[in-house]
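Predict the 3D structure for this chain.
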Amino acid sequence: MNQSTHNKPNILLVDDRPENLLILEEVLGATDQNLVMAKSGEEALKQILEKDFAAILLDVQMPGIDGFETAALIRQRRQTTNTPIIFITAESQTNETMLKGYGLGAVDFLFKPIVPDILRTKVKAFANLFTMRQEIETNARRINAINQQLEQEILERSRAQAEVMKLNRFLEEKIRELDLSNKELEAFSYSVSHDLRAPLRSIDGFSLMLLEEYTEKLDETEKGYLHRIRAASQRLEQIIDDLLRLSRIMRNDMRLEPIDLSGLVRSISGAFQDASPNRKVELITEPNVMVMADMNLIRLAMENLVNNAWKYTSQKTDARIEFGVDSRGTELTNPKTLCFIRDNGAGFDMSLSDKLFTPFQRLHPESQFPGTGIGLAIVQRVIHRHGGNIRAEAEVGKGATFYFTLSGT
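Done. Predicted structure below.
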């Protein structure tokens, strides 16, 4: 249905005589309604199919379909069941006429000659009621839309809460599994620490006794076998030590404190130099690099990083190891300080960098660069435990640089 012109309520005027329509138009012209004319009952029925009306002023005596028949047809239509109908008639005021009109759903009767003020007052009242009803229906639609939106939001929130509860249950289950795994790991660590170390030390000790006490009875091949046995047992014990360190990193409590990382790296590098006095290595350390870290853990990480650089520069006559801060910054740094340890050693193929921090994954043959293959995995866990990140850049034969950040640096 079309609403009234310029939002004015529509008033339908039905009369077969043009002069009567002109009189009604003259009387109601000053009112704030949109007047629609119909010269017959048939025309009136067409108009109500196209527009909503606040009231219908309907002449009783018309040729063809008279006013009463028109009213009956109007009332049969669901949309116009309650549209106010005011009958206008020139007949004498009789109870029979009025009862018939009211029986057809009329709300009022006006007898000619019409009093203009009465007509205007009645039409205005029905127009106001119509406007109020339209506003109520509009607000009801808005409220209904809001309610539907709220229902949808409540439904979505309920679904989200259900998902959160499901996720919480999943996380609780994973926490229980993790707790069980930690207990199993602790049991394994105890077993490794006590049950495996003893036989390894026995193997190493008895091999040493054979070498020392029966050296004159052993030929060089037999002595070689014993040396290999000792080396293998010692290497296995070192692997066990590294595995224990790796397992303890995520379980031990942390105590953060200000640490002079420059001094720590100098101290560790000096210890390596003292252990290998015949090597000439240029050690460059940027001063006054301060971090907030756990001393035991950060020392373990720096020892492994310096050891890594020391090992892979072992075949360089002009070996160089450098510690400092990269002022450029990268995606790892902002707003943290990007530290690095750089060497000019063997380097590695960057296409293999995804294996770099995986335990027991080696990028070089052990015969060339011995080690347990766990050191960099330890470094990564320590850095992650401090809320930081680590990555490496390298080129074969030209060295490697390990960039890392720590929370609070």
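Residues 1-5, 330-335 have pLDDT under 50 and may be disordered.
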